[in-house]
Design a protein that fits this description.
Layout (H helix, E strand, L loop, with lengths): L3 E7 L2 H12 L5 E3 L2 E7 L2 E7 H8 L16 E5 L3 H10 L3 E8 L4 E7 L5 E7 L4
Parallel strand pairs: 1-4, 5-8
Antiparallel strand pairs: 2-3, 3-4, 6-7, 7-8
Helix pairs in contact: 1-3
Length: 130
């Protein structure tokens, strides 16, 4: 594997681009009609594709992604320094808080929210990072 791209289907590309720009405090590395990309690490990219674009691309081979609006369809779990700062930016940008920053059973401190498209967004750090 040379690079991993994780693509979220979004209702409004411009709105989701601005949301993730604010939350991640990153500028997109690609922002063209039909696709926005944020480079999260050297070999990891988060993409935002309009629901209509994936529907045009794959046609009737899958259900219309818009039919799943409001149902969590993906979780973006990011290990970051100061996860509380990311979580606060997400809430300020319009995310719905699901769970504040707390110690989790798997050895992370993590906070959860729901992005404007209903994707679960988690910011975490290992407990040993203190």
């Amino acid at each position: 594997m040379t690079k991993a791209h994780f693509i979220l289907y979004v209702k409004d590309q411009a709105r989701s681009t601005e949301f993730y720009r604010q939350v991640l405090d990153l500028a997109p590395t690609l922002n063209v009609p039909g696709m926005t990309e944020f480079t999260l690490a050297d070999q990891c990219v988060l993409g935002l594709m309009p629901e209509a674009s994936i529907k045009r691309l794959l046609g009737d081979k899958l259900p219309d992604p818009a039919s799943g609006n409001g149902v969590p369809r993906a979780e973006v779990y990011l290990l970051v320094p100061q996860p509380q700062d990311y979580h606060r930016r997400a809430i300020a940008a319009g995310a719905i808080e699901l769970s504040g920053l707390a110690i989790r059973d798997w050895g992370h401190r993590a906070a959860y929210s729901l992005d404007p498209d209903g994707h679960v967004l988690a910011f975490a750090e290992p407990l040993d990072s203190e």
